[in-house]
Design goal:
heterodimer; A: alpha/beta; Rossmann fold; 4-stranded parallel β-sheet; 4 helices; 4 strands; B: alpha/beta; Mannitol-specific EII, Chain A; 5-stranded mixed β-sheet; 5 helices
Chain lengths: 108, 153
């Protein structure tokens, strides 16, 4: 699959986001996901989402629609339901790979 | 990252605010943080709660921006009695917390490796219950230091 961008976001982008990003990079390397993992401060998330494929959000877990899939990053910190989250993330990355339907052509 | 003077066993605090203030004051006294670290820490905890529930115990991982930190350090406290922290990512949930890990970070990319080790420890069976059983500061400090050095990334 072509390289995807994963955004990791928390309140200040310092401790929890950096730690989560390190763990995702490790899992990505093991599973050979071609991804770039970027840490982003929560206030800059909306802007960053435009150039990314999936968001891993720690806190606040808001209801905002950023136009790309969003997962909770807590399992990377707690280990609770981590396997499930990794599978979800992998499924999202694979879904992104599917060719998009041709857009309708105007006037034809 | 660890310093014996920033490891506490049986710390008495009536609330999370008091616990965080006590730790921040001690860090200020050691010239590790700026004078406004305490207020920034408390404010951030209210905006972005850091309580985490693990199988053996709940803990809090309070932290704030790097600009309030002069030297990287990890302050650790085992409280005498639990205080309420709200859950990270689920602030409607209140956790009863006796363990506080307060990382003060200057360069996240450099310090992320021991932070990740710490997270590995949280997930290691026996680590948190062992921590709660440490009888005094010296044994807690040694326990933490040994565990952190041995923990996987």
């Amino acid at each position: 699959m072509p390289q995807k961008v994963i955004l990791v976001s928390c309140g200040t982008g310092v401790v929890t986001a950096e730690t989560t990003a390190l763990r995702i990079r490790k899992i990505a390397a093991e599973r050979k996901w071609p991804v770039e993992v970027r840490v982003v401060e929560f206030p800059k998330l909306k802007q960053a989402a435009a150039g990314a494929d999936v968001i891993v959000q720690i806190a606040p877990h808001d209801a905002e629609d950023y136009g790309i899939p969003k997962l909770s990053g807590l399992p990377f910190l707690t280990g609770f339901e981590l396997d499930k989250t990794v599978q979800q993330l992998e499924a999202i990355l694979l879904t992104l790979d599917k060719p998009k339907a041709e857009p309708p052509q105007n006037g034809l | 990252m660890l310093r014996p003077e920033l490891v506490f066993v049986g710390l008495k605090a009536a609330s999370r605010e008091e616990a965080l203030r006590l730790l921040a004051e001690r860090m200020l006294k050691e010239d590790l943080v700026t004078p406004d670290f305490s207020a920034a820490l408390l404010e951030r905890e209210e905006a972005f709660p850091t309580g985490l529930q693990f199988a053996e115990a709940a803990l809090a991982l309070p932290h704030t921006e790097t600009r309030y930190v002069l030297q990287p350090v990890l302050a650790v406290a085992v409280l005498a009695e639990p205080v309420a922290f709200l859950a990270m990512g689920a602030p409607e949930q209140s956790l009863s917390v006796r363990l506080i890990f307060l990382p003060a970070v200057v360069h996240p990319d450099e310090q992320v490796r021991w932070l990740s080790r710490l997270i590995s420890l949280f997930q290691t069976p026996g680590f948190l219950s062992g921590l709660l059983q440490s009888p005094d500061r010296e044994s807690l400090f040694q326990y933490l230091r040994t565990a952190l050095n041995a923990a996987p990334l």
